Amino acid sequence: MGGFFILLIYLLHMVIAGIAVKEVSVAINSTLNQVDFNLEFATPFSIGQTCNIRELPSDAIHAINRATSRSCKQEIEQIACTINRGGYYPDYIQNTCPMGLDPARDYEHKDWDGSTMRPARIFYLLQLHGRAVQQILRLFRLIYHPVHFYYLHVDVNSDYLHTALLPLQIKYDNVFVTNNRFRTMWGGVTLLEMVLSVMTEALWDIKWEWDYFMNLSGADFPLRTNQELTRLLGANMGENFLKPSSTDLDTFIKKQGISHTFVQCDNHMWKLGPRKLPDGVIFEGGSDWISLHRDFVEYVISADDIIVRELEVFYRHTLLPVESFFHTVLRNGIYCHTFVKESLRLIHWNHRLGCNCQYKHIVDWCGCSPNNLRVDQLRKLIDQPEYLVFARKFESIVDNTVINMLESHLTSQQPQLSNLYTESVYDRDFSPEFTPKVLLVLNTLFDIYHNKNQCNTSNDVITEVYTVRNEKRLGLIIQTNHMQIFYTYINPIIFFDHEATPERFKEVIVGTGLDKKERIFRNYHDILTILDSPEVLLNWEQGSQLVISIDWYSPSQELISHFVTKLKSTWSVVFHTPDWVKPLEPGIWRVDIGSNNVHFISVKVAIFSSEIGEENLKMLANEKFDFKEDCYFGYQNNCKITKKCKKTVWSNKANDVLKVL
């Protein structure tokens, strides 16, 4: 939200308050590197009153100093000065709920009566980002029904995904892939702006009859069939499903940061300082996954009720606004009697892993996020009560087996897709940030293939690269204009002493982009270069305490790092990252793992560089990758490949989800 819009809101508030605003002027230090500018307001009551930045809360001053762009610095200062002067936030909001202070009630089962009830029609908002096309299409296939409407919003930073999903709206009249895209960062105000914008379109622009507005992410998966969901909503027609927090109100307000002002700009949520909550209303909140009846959605979007409009102003500067805005409006407004305390979702929380301030780089706050569900939790998923219709989070790239088994349970048949999961890690048109050194390795693999097969593919270029996984990283698919080449990873692990291997030991992985919450490496192509910082991940069973050693040896056999730690009986994971000095030496590194002073396993790690020459680069690539199979699509090229990609078990061309819808 731009600074001009903020000032416009302020002016409207002043007019409503009966204050004549004569002049609004901003004096800005020309460099904006040294923050020393003022916002001046002149009224009949205080001619020439000035907002001095030194009078602002320390959080606001700190935010101005850290913001990188001129416009963001100015927006933060304008809002902070306006709020500091008073009158921006309402002091009191009238609670119009006729049922008292806590009208929300628990979910109660209602029998389906087909003679008096009808199944609900759903307006799905799919909030999408990333590159997991195969998983998203799989979700779409399971929830699709001609009576519902599907609005796909793809984050503005996910152009690859947006383009990949456009065929859906060509194939189906009840699918819309919007071009009105927001930057929906975690905790950001733009997420609420996006949801309200889509609600407005759903009511007035999209000509489709619907009863319920439900948002889903690409990491959701159904636990119930379409019939079960539509009958559940039909039996509860008019109710609104929102999950409140399990904590008391004061704790929730404190943990969510509701009593602080936030501003979103420069792709960051800046904390500006504390604020007083308005009297009259009781703040509520919990899950941001909502199932709202059309009547309530229309009330939120178009009603003249002052509670809605004033809460909108308040939530324009609130962290995680979707987790609280609709809850608070519903609890305090005229539809409070329709508040059912369920989101219809099972959300998998592991606070020990998911609450480690992992969003501090984009938000001035410590937040939590749910963990992925895995195959060992399948029974938990199947045994849930009827009102838990969806579960989250799932990532096929983390555990595809649980999704396969859940779909089999849901449909009573084997999934039509392979157990292998493919996801794009590079696209020629949508990956400008792809590391040139990594692309060089991929082109080297392509050259090796050319030379081995003695074929002329001078017109072929790499257009896309996919990672291939099942329970583990399997390899890469290199795609050109008309062919795919499947390279698998060569097993880098060497056991030196099986008898010395602790019974607790499960696996060792070396990579980059470690996600400590999910305990996987997010560098999906698994190509390491001299500018990377490799890390080791050790997974263990629980058992007796051990002393673990991790030694890193360079290609010239120099010991670069020696690390020793105690593995307690209850620990299941060990991470280690040496203090690297860049650039690393190119070649084959070795990581030795020991237990109680006995070396039992080694891992070979290939570190690539463009500076080692073409032949050495090919030798190194052959140490890392092994050619598995090739296939063609479209037409056969000069390589005379005999197998079509759709006839393979590994190609994503054989798993075209659109064709099985």
TrEMBL record:
**Enzymatic class:** transferase
Pfam family of the protein (one): Branch
Per the UniProt entry, what are the Gene Ontology biological process annotations, in alphabetical order?
Answer: chondroitin sulfate proteoglycan biosynthetic process; heparan sulfate proteoglycan biosynthetic process
> Is Transmembrane helix one of the keywords UniProt gives this record?
yes
Q: What is its main location?
A: endoplasmic reticulum
Query: Recorded E.C. number(s)?
Result: 2.4.2.26
List keywords of the entry alphabetically. Answer: Disulfide bond, Endoplasmic reticulum, Glycoprotein, Glycosyltransferase, Golgi apparatus, Membrane, Metal-binding, Signal, Signal-anchor, Transferase, Transmembrane, Transmembrane helix
Which pathway does the UniProt entry assign to this protein? Answer: Glycan metabolism; heparan sulfate biosynthesis; Glycan metabolism; chondroitin sulfate biosynthesis
**InterPro entries under this entry?**
Glyco_trans_14 (IPR003406), XYLT (IPR043538), XylT_C (IPR024448)
Catalysed conversion reaction? UDP-alpha-D-xylose + L-seryl-[protein] = 3-O-(beta-D-xylosyl)-L-seryl-[protein] + UDP + H(+)
Q: Which GO terms describe its molecular function?
A: metal ion binding; protein xylosyltransferase activity
Q: How is this protein positioned relative to the membrane?
A: Single-pass type II membrane protein
Q: Which residues form the Xylosyltransferase C-terminal domain?
A: 495-559
The organism's place on the tree of life at top rank: Eukaryota
**In the record, which residues are listed under signal peptide?**
1-17
- GO cellular-component terms in the record? endoplasmic reticulum membrane; Golgi membrane
Q: Where in the cell is it found?
A: Endoplasmic reticulum membrane; Golgi apparatus membrane
Family listed: Belongs to the glycosyltransferase 14 family. XylT subfamily.
The protein, known as: protein xylosyltransferase
